[in-house]
Specification:
GMP Synthetase, Chain A, domain 3, alpha/beta, eight-stranded mixed β-sheet, 16 helices, 24 strands, 28% helix, single chain, Luciferase, domain 3, binds adenosine-5'-diphosphate
Length: 547
């Protein structure tokens, strides 16, 4: 027997339809690659997306075709997602920070038929065009006046394409389980792996993300999504904003402190989201110029752990509430958020920061457990470390083309590759990526925790902890530090600062100062490269054992 409610499919284009009917006047503001600020409304974006759908059909594209974007966050990139899904196509975001070989690998693997590109990235595509023979054309996201000279073949101008259409178009209706979007992980080891979202998974993720204990975006918000559309499905914001009618302020190519500050103040941004490195740049700009953030209410920080010092500055110095989030491309990407439970709002500031520095708790529709190496579930006592496993309707079931084989355990849980604790209140804390854990004397040391404490030192700009082989303990931690510009600080000073803040046996065996720490295409510390750099490094404690 079935119930008798309407079976309306969960399709992302209906989110934009909702915005058209209920929030047509709400603005989408974009800083463009061409340099100017562009303004349009959700009504404009809806019309232009429909025109783009028509143009794509006229070019011969249709249901199931994968059409890629290599672009910054602008209104055109936003429209491209809806224009592509509007013909039943699949948007595929390419990360321009990847190496050229990785990009061509991903483009070929995904079967991309067209690439939408910003002017900025035309040279990258010119460089790899010969390697991507199945791509049938390129759409340059600009107007006729700014079209570049290019060696690319089959080039179209975005504005010309849509100018030629009437907009008299109905979205192609697909099954809610049809492919909707694609995003590849950055593949720090081996080839990148692809995740294919469905309309249904994106819509469910939007509903969960917009609930108040999660991202909690509201209609009254002015949202600055600094997190790029090409980073992990833009954390769901390209669907979340039109679903509530929030104003969108797109940063385009400029993510430095000054440019972000300008948009935050000029567009009265109340809500923003980005990885910690972006906020580091903003804070330096604020401190150097003695500036405030009067309009900003909430900042979502994820992608890497939030250093406690950053969390405290936002909350105490600038009066901005931090939502620390954890997730991954494979999870659409939201997994947890550190929002309070009953009673926590009355805790002391320090107690509250102890909670917010954790990655947080899962919303409904996200299940989570930690397991040992044999797959046995570990206790939720805040102490046991284990492999973090997740299950839910917006978690990956398999990678594109079955890469990596069976990726779920027998209960349908996906191994995130992260190592974490879960406390009795349900708050999860990441201690490491499983491939980065430091095993010392059979126990695990959390590199992330040491890093986050180390960057609290006023003379430390960035810190990374890696395991170095040790004859007695198997591995011991080495702390790699970038000093603040012009600062003088010694190894002893830094170790002294850590004393009492971490367990004695976690204390790094040595501290080295460097000018640069390598980062991945999504702004994370590249531990693998760092370990390779320090492959031959001998810890002073190792020499003592050897003698
Ligand atoms: P990519 O793998 O392409 O860099 P993802 O954003 O999918 O991009 O990376 C997901 C990984 O990022 C997680 O598995 C986790 O290791 C790390 N991560 C994300 N958010 C946090 C966070 N708040 N704290 C610590 N690590 C995080």
């Amino acid at each position: 027997m079935f119930g008798a409610m309407q079976d309306v499919p969960l399709l992302v284009n209906r989110i934009l339809d909702h915005a058209l009917v209920n929030h047509p006047e709400r603005e989408i503001v974009s800083r463009l690659v061409e340099g100017n600020i562009h303004r349009e409304t959700y009504a404009d974006a809806h019309l232009r997306s429909r025109k783009l759908s028509q143009a794509l059909q006229a070019l011969g594209f249709g249901q199931g075709d994968v059409l890629a974007t290599l672009a910054w966050n602008t209104h055109r990139h936003f429209e491209a997602w809806y224009g592509i899904t509007g013909i039943g196509g699949v948007y595929h975001t390419l990360n321009p920070r990847l190496f050229a070989e990785q990009l061509s690998y991903i483009i070929n693997h995904a079967g991309d038929k067209v690439i939408f590109t910003d002017l900025t990235f035309v040279p990258i595509l010119e460089g790899i065009e010969k390697e991507i023979p199945n791509v049938k054309g390129f759409i340059i996201m600009t107007d006729a006046a700014h079209m570049p000279e290019t060696t690319l073949s089959n080039v179209h101008c975005y504005e010309d394409l849509i100018d030629g259409q009437s907009g008299d178009f109905n979205w192609v209706e697909v099954d809610e389980r049809a492919p909707c979007g694609m995003c590849y992980t950055s593949g720090t080891t081996g080839n990148p792996k692809g995740v294919c979202y469905t309309h249904r998974s994106n819509v469910l993720h939007t509903l969960v993300g917009n609930s108040s204990d999660v991202i909690g975006l509201r209609s009254v918000d002015s949202l600055l999504p600094v997190v790029p559309l090409f980073h992990a499905n833009a954390w769901g914001l390209a669907f979340g904003a039109p679903a509530v009618g929030a104003k969108i302020v797109n940063p385009g190519p400029n993510m430095d402190g000054e440019s972000i500050y300008q948009l935050l103040t000029e567009e009265k941004v109340t809500f923003t989201a980005a990885v910690p490195t972006v906020w580091l740049m903003l804070m330096q700009h604020l401190e150097n110029n003695k500036l405030d953030l009067p309009d900003l209410e909430t900042v979502v920080i994820g992608g890497s752990a939030v250093p406690r010092v950053m969390l405290e500055k936002f909350e105490r110095d600038y009066g901005v509430s931090v939502k620390h989030a954890w997730g991954m491309t494979e999870m659409s990407p939201l997994g947890t958020i550190a929002s309070f439970k009953a009673g926590m709002e009355n805790m002391t500031f320090d107690e509250q920061m102890d909670i917010k520095v954790k990655q947080g708790r899962p919303p409904y529709l996200m299940e989570m457990k930690i397991t040992d190496d044999d797959g046995n579930e570990l206790p939720r006592d805040g102490k046991a470390f284990g492999h973090l496993m997740v299950r839910g309707p917006f978690v990956v079931g398999e990678y594109i083309k079955g890469d990596g084989g069976q990726i779920l355990d027998e209960d349908g849980f996906f191994d995130t590759g992260d190592v974490a604790t879960i406390d009795p209140l349900g708050f999860m804390q990441i201690t490491d990526r499983s491939k980065d854990v430091i095993k010392s004397g059979g126990e695990w040391i959390s590199s992330i925790e040491i890093e986050n404490i180390a960057v609290g030192h006023e003379k430390v700009q960035e810190a990374a902890v890696i395991g170095i082989a040790h004859p007695k303990w198997d591995e011991r931690p080495l702390l790699v530090v970038i000093k603040n510009e012009g600062a003088e600080v010694s190894k002893e000073e830094i170790l002294g600062y850590l004393e009492g803040k971490i367990a004695k046996w976690w204390m790094p065996d040595d501290v080295v100062f460097v000018d640069e720490i390598p980062h991945t295409a999504t702004g994370k510390i590249q531990k693998l490269t760092l370990r390779q750099q320090f492959e031959d490094y001998k810890l002073p404690t190792a020499e003592a054992v050897a003698e």
